[in-house]
Each structure stands twice: as C-alpha cells, then as structure tokens.
Fold these 2 entries.
Entry 1:
Amino acid sequence: MRNIPIVTKNLLLVNIIAFVATWMLQLRGIDLNDICGLHFFMASDFQVWQLVTYMFLHSGFMHILFNMFALWMFGVVIENVWGPKKFLFYYISCGVGAGLMQELAQFCSFYLTISSQDPSISFSELFIIGQQLSMQLNGWTTIGASGAVYAILLAFGMIFPNERIFIFPLPVPIKAKWFVMFYVAIELFSALGSSGDNVAHMAHLGGMLFGFLMIRYWNNHPTAGYGRNRGYKFFDTLKENFERRKGAKMHVHEGGATRQDDWSYNRQKNQNQEEIDRILDKIRRNGYDSLTKEEKQRLFDSSQE
C-alpha cells in the first residue's frame, strides 16, 4: 500500500470501508444501498447527492473485487501520469456521468413500459404517472464504481494505446486500445440486448463516454495544463537531456582557470543536478501538477541550458 498513489489508495480504502459498513448495517436491519444508492430520479427516495455516493457501494464480494482490482491495476498508472488532483476530478466526474447515463436509460425504459400499455400517453403525462408510482420506482437502484473504473480503463487505452497487457483467458498479450474496444463492444451489445442481468451496462458506457469527451477536451486544450499531460511529455524530454549531460565529469575553463574554480563549478553543477533529480522524482510520484511554481520554473530554466 505504501507504493500506491494517495488518491488511488484512498479510493480503495473508502470502497472497502463502505462495503464492510454495508454488511454490518444490514445485520442491524439498515440497508445502506437504499440510502446512498442511486435511485431513479422519479422515485421518492431519489437525492442528488446519490450521484456521488452510489459509486462507493457494491452488491457483493465479486463485484467489489473486480472493481477494486481494476482500479488498483490501472488507477496507479493513470494517477502517476496525471497527478492526484486531476485523477480524482476525472474519477468522480466520470462516475457522476455514468450515473446520469443510467438515469437516462431508466427513463427510456420507463417510457417504453408505460407507452406499451397505453400508446396515447403524452410526454407530460409521463411525469404525472411517475409521481404516482414513485414508491414502486424505488426498486430501480444503481450501485457500484464500475462506471468510474471503466473510465479509468479507457484513459489507460487512450494514453498507452500500444501497451501490451495480459487479459485472462487470452494466451497472448493484446494492445490496450484493442482491449478497450473489446470492452466497449461487449457493453454496447449487452446494453442493447434485453438480458435482464441486473448490470448497469449504460452506466459503464456512460463512464467511458464522459471519460472520452474529457480526455479529448484536455488534448485539444494543452495550455490549460491538461491532455496527456504537459508534465508527462516535459518529463520525457528533460530526462533525455539530463541523461546526455551525465557524461561530463569535470569542467575545464578556457584561459587558465584554477583547479578550485573547476571544483566550485562541478560542485554547483552537482547541486543543480540533485535538485533536478528531486523534482523529477516528485513528478514520477505525484505528477507534473504537484510541482510548485518555482519548481516548474527551475525545470524550464534547466531545459534551456
């Protein structure tokens, strides 16, 4: 756990704590899923804040195991690339977006159900009927971090499209971009099919859709500090430059400079290199956005030397 970035670690802990709390409260006759799960917006128990709380609840051990394993496996990489603030914003935003897509899917399902019984029902009358059935609609409840987790999978596929990963039960590794497309195809097929498997496929697709739009926006607005991450590219460039300079052991001044001058120069150069190494390590751990203004300026100045 010490090597897991701060946001990913805390997301794992909060999900696990919520899962244990749900199980313990159920023994006392309290269902946390009814309180914090995402209800259909026409249901009597719907609350806006459920768009956030629902993504920290899970229905069973296998449900939370898959989501937390994927969050750990891919979230660690994405957070190290983006930094904690951007990663958390992306995760929560995509989770909320997934919830909104699930609400839209449930509304369409509600409309089709009512119109199949009475085709003459108008759109405005649909809300009146929903108000009358608000207690029954409480059964439509969504829980799980899958929407946000699928958005993390998408981010990994977009940032590292050619990275090869092993996926059970495939015997050979496949590129991340094909892995993501494969999952999109499965979720789309499952969402269109009336399988009745109680899985929020539209929430999964919704998380990926919001993630895709967000990453595309960041890629098209690099001056805002977004995209694949200016710090990530900047770090790669700096790393190459600094590696080329490590060969210089001793600087010799032209014009008969003293040995003490050379020692002073090299001592200062080593101190500067140590400072740069410290900043680069900070980027590796927390992302470029974690740097102070002075540290960013120090990197920029060094890259121009």
Note: Residues 181 and 239 are 32 Å apart (CA to CA).
Entry 2:
Amino acid sequence: MCKSPTPSLPKGRGQEHNNHNNAMKVIDIIKEARESGKPRFSFELLPPLKGDGLEGIFEAIESLIPYNPAFINVTSHREEMKYVERPDGLIEKHIVRRRPGTVGVCSTIRNRYNIEVVPHVICGGQTKYDIEDSLIDLDFLGIHNVLALRGDAMPGSKRFEPHKDGHAHADQLVRQIIDMNNGQFIDGEPNTTHHTDFCIGVAGYPEKHPESPNHLTDLGYLKQKIDAGAEYIATQISYDTDMILRFRDKCAEIGIDAPILPGLKPFATKTQLTVLPQTFAVDLPQELVSKVMACRNNDEVKQVGIEWSIRQGERLIKEGFPVLHFYTMTKTMQVRQIVSTLM
C-alpha cells in the first residue's frame, strides 16, 4: 500500500468552530468511501474517568486527524455499585458512573475538530425516558449518528438485567430511535413540528456474542436489529480475517445487506493472549499467538500487533470493505502507524 503524503498539521487547541450545518451521516460516509474507491478508517475513544479533563482525548484525536478519519465513536458506560462505610460502621450502597460525559465529549469533538462523532447509546441502566432525553440532547447539538447497543452486564453481575422501564435487547432500542425519527415519543404523543434524523449503527459479532447459543442464532439477532431500522454494522474485534469474511458472507446469505465495518485492535501486550479471549470471547490465530509468545518484551509485541493489523487491513480493503474501525482505548500510537500505511 502507498503511504500517505506528509500529513498537514491538526487544528490547534482553541481553534474551535461549529460544523452543525454540514453534518454527514455515517451511512453516507460509507457510501462515499465505497464509490470513490478510497478506504477510510474510524476509531473509538473512551470518555475520561470522572474528574479527569479532555487533554488525553485531544492528544489522541490530534495524532490521527492528519490521516482523515471518517468519524469518531465515543463509548458510553453503565453504572456501577460502590459500597461506602459510614461513620457509624454501616455500609451504604451508591450508584456511580466512572466514565460519564459521552454526550459532552461528542459535542466538544465535533465542534473543535470538524469531524462526525458517533455516541454509543446503551440499554443498560437506562429507562426508555432516559434514552429519549439523551437523544433529544444529541438532536439539539446537531449530532445525528448513534451506535445502538444493549450494553454489558452490571460489573460484578454474571448476566445482563435490563432496567424495569428500559430495553432488554438492542433491536428494541433501535425501534425507539426509529420512532423518534418518525416523530413518535414514549408517551405516545406525536411530534408534528420536528423529527429527529438519526443514522443508527449496531454491533455484529464475527465470532458470535458470548451469550448466544450458536453463530446462526446470533446472526438472527443481528438481522432483527437491521430489520428494526439499523443502517450499518460495526463488528467486535477479530484477529482472524477469514472469520470476518465468513461473517460477511453469512450475513448476505440471510438477507443482511447493511455495510459492515470490521473492528480491529492491534495487539499490544503479552497479557492480552489471555485477557482478550476472556474479555471479548475471540479466538486468536495460532500464527499470531506464536509471534507474540516469541517476543522478548511488549515493544516487540506492539510491532507484531502493527504488522498483523496492517496485514488484516490490506486484505479487508482488497475484499471491498470501505471503512476499517479501530478500537484504541484512547491509545493511538499503533493505529497511527497502521493507518499511515493503509490509507
């Protein structure tokens, strides 16, 4: 692959501006990339921990802006239980969010860097009214792309428990967003003067969701989300390119024609040999495992991760995927080297 020309300098801090009037939907960005034959990339960031500022977010974005990212996803994190001992010795239970601020981070990014953002909207810990309020806020801010997710179980819980006034599955969340696009709110009153206009993405699992009994059932759940109105699919990470291609083909076989954005995460540490399969329920190709195990330190592992992701990216681009999606955990050094080679 040809390398990018010398990147232009990113916008400096303080050079903020408003991009509300030229917003693009992710589905149109994907279509444009496909028609032009020029592949694009997107990446995901975490909101800062509660109490931290946005400097880490700014640094991550400014390292990748020169390579023209298509859009930036910002994750949303559900509540956790915190147990605090009172002066009298009794234990109080508090509900806390360690990474709040998804909507605010998205608005800041979009206005500061003139790039589309995709906030994650989750079912976990949310009532339908909470979700509606968040969507109204996003609409007011001119943010019209969302990724609709069920979300994880509460930390410490073995299974997902929906809020009693919320959604149990992502296809229900998609339908709520579509209803808002049609001017229909939770209370049943139609809005005849203003409709939202959200482009909705959903998650797909090349190696199946860990809670699904088998791959075919998992594909059926994905089709429910697409049939509900979702327009594109962002996949969970997979280090097996053949698995991603089989996932694409199986989707087509059951009538899923939405664009698929493969999810990539460059390997960075030896401990990920056990952590990633446990966390994301993915199988690691033996060739990758052998390469990582042969590394003497994590600097060598990072280089293996860069080379493996470039190899995956080159094949996926050749297979016609218009956008590659990178999970960065707000650490972008490897992704910068990968996209400078691929794009």
Note: The CA atoms of residues 240 and 285 lie 6 Å apart.
